[in-house]
Design goal:
Elements lengths: L8 H32 L4 E2 L3 E3 L2 E16 L2 E5 L4 E5 L7 E2 L4 E5 L2 H43 L5 H41 L1 E3 L4 E6 L6 E2 L4 E7 L4 E8 L11 E6 L4 E10 L9 E7 L10 E17 L4 E3 L2 E7 L5 E5 L1 E9 L2 E5 L11 E8 L6 E3 L11 E2 L1
Parallel strand pairs: 1-24
Antiparallel strand pairs: 2-23, 3-12, 3-16, 4-11, 5-7, 5-10, 6-9, 7-8, 9-11, 12-15, 13-14, 13-16, 14-15, 16-22, 17-18, 18-19, 18-23, 20-21, 20-22
Helix pairs in contact: 2-3
């Protein structure tokens, strides 16, 4: 049977049933859509400070590695050959003037000195015996001279007395000369003994130690390098010779010492005008003053080659999402938008101005603040959120 036009009754019933099921779903969806629109109409609002984007003039720099060294360095070398017997100091030890640093085996020299003293003693004994005979021969010769004038002695007797006197005198002079020679050898041996005891010529610190007990050393072989105490320190670096006209004594350069978390500006004290052909560099010495540094510390010197104008922001306003850097920009309607930016060098703001830093230079606390160069993503005059960043989000409104 057909009904409702040309639609079969069974088919009509199925369509009617579907209609009845669809109507509740439609009303539920409509209610949900209205509820979503109502929720979206509530915009997140928060309070925060803003920062106006401004361009600043920064130095264009080149970075060169260097090291700290003492202004006074003393290298001590061996003066006598022998085996090192004792090295009572280590690198970094503080030493006083006259303190023993290296002792070379002095057994042979001491044995030689002992033998020389024994030889001197033996010769002195011979001299004592001869001198008694010499004094008698001298008196006897003078007596025969007087007797011969008085014609109470013969010429033969006078000649024998003269011969005996001069013979003993020659022996006495020879023994005295031998004693002087032995004494000279003793003094020389004592000097050699002093050469075997290497002592500190000044107060300072042990900067380098090149020998250990048991090492055989030859004259001229380096043993110890000593840094003078209280003399201050240089920062020494090799600079590309293309920059030789950019650096002059008295100018400031930025020096960083990563091991000490130190970034500072120091004056150039000396510039070696003759470059080194092998490396095409020249030597720069910056005066680090009398700061409590240590020789050998690695550092870097930043040489200014010009100026560049760029946007600089405090690093604390940078928001990182999944490794991407960005900032929250506030538009004219006070709506917040997250924008990706490309960053450049980091800078440390101090009383001396912006100082460039590297990744191994930590953020400075206290009054110092770390800044970063923005290469792209922002324009001068735009406003960005600078505080309360944890509440900022895309589409939020700034109160």
């Amino acid at each position: 049977m057909w009904g409702h036009g040309n639609i079969p009754k069974k088919r009509f019933n199925r369509l009617f049933l579907c209609f009845l099921l669809f109507v509740p779903v439609f009303f539920v969806a409509a209610c949900s859509s209205e509820k979503s629109k109502e929720e979206l109409s509530v915009v997140h609002a928060f309070k925060a400070d803003t920062l106006k984007v401004r361009s600043q003039e920064l130095p264009s720099i080149r970075v060169f590695p260097g090291r700290v060294r003492s202004k006074v360095q003393v290298s001590l070398a061996a003066k006598m050959p022998g085996y090192v017997k004792e090295v009572p100091v280590q690198i970094g030890d503080q030493v006083k003037k006259g303190q023993l640093l290296v002792l070379v085996d002095d057994t042979d020299v001491k044995a030689r000195i002992k033998a020389l003293y024994e030889q001197k003693s033996a010769v002195s004994g011979q001299l004592s015996a001869i001198e008694a005979k010499y004094e008698y021969a001298k008196i006897n010769f003078e007596r025969f001279k007087r007797l011969f004038k008085e014609e109470s002695a013969t010429k033969d007797e006078l000649d024998r007395a003269r011969t005996q006197y001069f013979a003993l005198k020659s022996q006495t002079d020879a023994l005295k000369a031998k004693i002087k020679a032995v004494e000279a050898q003793i003094r020389e041996a004592r000097n050699q003994l002093a050469y075997l005891r290497i002592k500190a010529p000044i107060d300072g610190w042990i900067a380098d130690r090149k020998v250990d007990p048991g090492t055989y050393v030859n004259p001229g072989m380096p043993l110890i390098r000593l840094d003078g105490k209280g003399a201050g320190f240089w920062f020494e670096a090799q600079i590309d010779d293309s920059l030789i006209d950019n650096i002059r004594p008295g100018e400031d350069v930025t020096v960083s010492i990563p091991a000490l978390d130190l970034v500072t500006k120091e004056k150039v004290e000396h510039v070696q005008r003759s470059s080194q052909p092998a490396t095409h560099t020249f030597t720069l010495l910056a005066d680090m003053g009398s700061t409590e540094l240590k020789s050998g510390l690695f550092g870097r010197v930043f040489i200014e080659t010009g100026k560049v104008t760029t946007i600089v922001l405090p690093e604390k306003v940078i928001v990182r999402r999944a490794g991407i850097n960005g900032v929250y920009v506030v538009d004219e309607n006070k709506t917040v938008h997250w924008r990706i930016v490309r960053l450049g060098k980091k800078w440390l703001k101090t009383a001396a101005g912006y100082l460039p830093v590297l990744q191994d230079v930590p953020e400075a606390g206290g009054e110092k603040e770390l800044f970063v160069t923005v290469l792209s993503g922002l324009s001068e005059g735009e406003s960005i959120v600078s505080s309360n960043l944890f509440q900022a989000r895309e589409g939020a409104r700034l109160e």
